From TrEMBL:
GO terms for molecular function: hydrolase activity. The keyword Zinc-finger does not apply. CDD domains: M48_yhfN_like. Coiled coil: none annotated. Keywords: Hydrolase. Residues 108-335 form the YgjP-like metallopeptidase domain. Signal peptide: none annotated. Residues 22-64 have a biased composition (Pro residues). InterPro entries: UTP_pyrophosphatase-like (IPR053136), YgjP-like_metallopeptidase (IPR002725). The keyword Hydrolase applies. This is Predicted metal-dependent hydrolase. It comes from plant metagenome.
Amino acid sequence: MMPSGRVQLDLFDPVMPAPVAPRVPAPPAPASTPIAPAPAVPPAAPVARPAAPPAPPSIPPSRPPATQASRVPTPRPPPLPDGARWRETGTEQQSIGYVLLRSRRRSIGFVIGDDGLRVTAPNWVTLTQVDEAVREKSRWILSKLRDWHTRQERLALAHTRWQAGGELPYLGRRIQLQLGTPPAAEAGAARPANPRAMQAIYTGDPELPQDGDTLWLPLPPDADHARIRDSAQAWLQRRAAQWFDVRLNVFLDRSGLRINRWRLSSATTRWGSCTSDGNISLNWRLIHFAPDIIDYVIAHELAHLREMNHSHDFWAEVGQILPDYEAARDVLRKHAPGDLPG
Ligand SMILES: [Zn+2]
């Protein structure tokens, strides 16, 4: 127990030893019954990996499963260098896309650059041998690609501009800001019933955002940056309140844990907190991140209801609530709330 009875998750969480293999997760409680403490779960038989819990019923089927481990995206760069080809190799962890170049060098080389992974191989090496080399090095490659991807995200965050055409990360996607109301054709069903209502309009599905979706803010074309930021943040905070509430309830149902209440925070140094009397706060800026990152923070804070520390038992608890949380945790460790727009 921490002396203050208050434990916070923040960027400066000390690096913890690898958690023990997570136990088999408790089955989700039926949604209609009151939340009761979870039954004690016996340690798992020594299997390598517990099965993920069944998808909770309250998640729309279109949403990615909560327990999906973070994949490192390896997008194909639009123009390939001269003489290069795009190739994807399946590995134990995930498929890795890369630019393959032939050269006169004598060995296979791996470089992570602006376009992601670039593999250079001698002319006489077969594609099968290249695949084998990528698979053999996949752990190193994915760790470097993950760092690279985090750097790219940071750059994108640093470039958010509070202006028409500015881009903003929302649930891990890049959405665009515009002022006024969308052209009728674009708005489609998203158009408000009362066209005079001054409300933001999202062209796309705010539950399943895609890169390039647009958030139309009800502001005049000459609105200054501060007004644009305030308006965009008000929308983001409303979305955060809804999204976090749904996800929190999914995890409460699944784990049988109870909380007293939760609220949005706007701390600049931490993502969430949990007090010993069951009050949870979640930083609204988490709404910028992909759903699995948000799930991780929620699972982390809920695990503190059982373990008010960052011990082995605590991480086992996190793993029980959210198996395969490690990649999401590692991504978040590289960001501070203060780095995010606004
Ligand atoms: Zn913590």
